[in-house]
UniProtKB/TrEMBL annotation:
Protein name: NAD-dependent epimerase/dehydratase domain-containing protein
GO CC annotations, alphabetized: cytoplasm
Alphabetical list of SUPFAM superfamilies matching this protein: NAD(P)-binding Rossmann-fold domains (SSF51735)
Domain NAD-dependent epimerase/dehydratase stretches: 12-225
Matches recorded under PANTHER family: NAD(P)-BINDING DOMAIN-CONTAINING PROTEIN-RELATED, PROTEIN YEEZ
Organism: Paraburkholderia caffeinitolerans
Length: 338
């Protein structure tokens, strides 16, 4: 595949390659014959792991426009998968970073690819949400995501093409910053207690990262055929009654000889510490997604690709728990890094 990448000269810049979705898109692009470049502020264990997969590293910060533009030289695609960690400083960082990506894409004639979220939508769009549903978010982060996408829509009128793929809560073997990894289970420890943040009977949308990345790569390959501002929804794994993810974790754990119990998530503790810490405050702001059903309609994606990539739930959960080091078979790669 590396030879194919050299022959075609297809190069993609990935911002956020050490994140779950950015890293997986990078790996799958390489598998599809692309040369992948990553802009990173420094080196760490996760960076070294990605570098081992043939990713060219360029030092720089997504907040530095000149650095982004230099890294984008010769790129046909820029994957914008970078987010401030732990919900912190979104208002300061999210929009300047997308502005830098847009400037770089305009300079190179590159397509911007954005892994999107469900934060954009408020109650008037629920429960089954299409790509063109009204975007009237009830949270600050939702308003920022709407503004971010509007930047891309405006840029389309100036020749900058973009692809947005919105999905539910990400989970996967290399995804450490997720509800499954940080709420349902504890990385590096065999599964014993599963904490459930939702309300029984209320559905919840999940997205297995390898499936989401595959859909993104397939859309990238079709980018010339898509609208200049193309938006898609990934249905992912729809937990229709809000209990199926926890049930899948129990089934997988049992197959590995582990005994589990299910308990409610510790929302009272989150309320208690929220006045003193950013992340708990932000978790409370997004709690509505565990109290109301928001299901993504993937009809447009299926019409475009023919089908949505879909790994069976138990298989996806098993791979995720193994990566987190939660199956009692030794510490997983991600759990070790965490």
């Amino acid at each position: 595949m590396a030879t194919q990448a050299l022959e075609t000269g297809r190069t993609a810049l990935v911002l956020g390659v050490t994140g779950g979705i950015g890293g997986e898109v990078a790996r799958q692009l390489i598998g599809a014959g692309w040369r992948v470049r990553a802009l990173q502020r420094g080196t760490n264990a996760a960076t070294a792991t990605h570098a081992g997969h043939g990713i060219e590293q360029v030092q720089g910060d997504a907040m530095d426009r000149e650095a982004v533009m230099r890294a984008a030289q010769g790129c046909e695609v820029i994957v914008h998968a970078v987010n401030p960690p732990g919900y912190k400083r979104w208002a300061e960082l999210v929009l300047p970073m997308i502005d830098n990506t847009i400037a770089a894409a305009q300079g190179q004639g590159a397509t911007v690819v954005l892994p999107g979220t469900v934060y954009n939508f408020g109650p008037e769009a629920l429960p089954l949400v299409g790509e063109d549903a009204p975007q009237q978010p009830r949270t600050r982060k939702g308003a920022i995501r709407v503004a971010l996408e509007r930047r891309l829509e405006t840029a389309a009128a100036h020749g900058v093409r973009s692809i947005i793929v919105r999905a539910g809560d990400f989970f996967g073997p290399r995804v450490g910053n997720s509800w499954l990894a940080q709420g349902f289970v504890k990385p590096g420890q065999p599964v014993s207690t599963i904490r459930e943040p939702g309300v029984p009977g209320v559905g919840h949308a999940w997205a297995y990262v390898p499936d989401a990345a595959r859909a993104i790569v397939e859309l990238i390959e079709m980018r010339a055929e898509l609208a200049p501002f193309a938006r898609f929804h990934l249905a992912g794994h729809w937990d229709a009654d809000g209990t199926q993810m926890a049930a899948a974790i129990c089934r997988v754990a049992q197959r590995h000889g582990l005994h589990t119990q299910r308990k409610p998530f510790m929302w009272p503790l989150i309320y208690a510490v929220a006045p003193f810490a950013t992340t708990p405050r932000e978790l409370l702001e997004m709690r509505y997604l565990w109290r109301e059903a928001l299901q993504l309609d993937n009809a447009r994606l299926v019409a475009t690709l023919g089908s949505e990539p879909h790994t069976p739930l138990d298989m996806a959960v098993e791979a995720t728990l193994a990566g987190l080091g939660c199956l009692g078979d030794g510490v997983g790669a991600l759990a070790g890094a965490l």
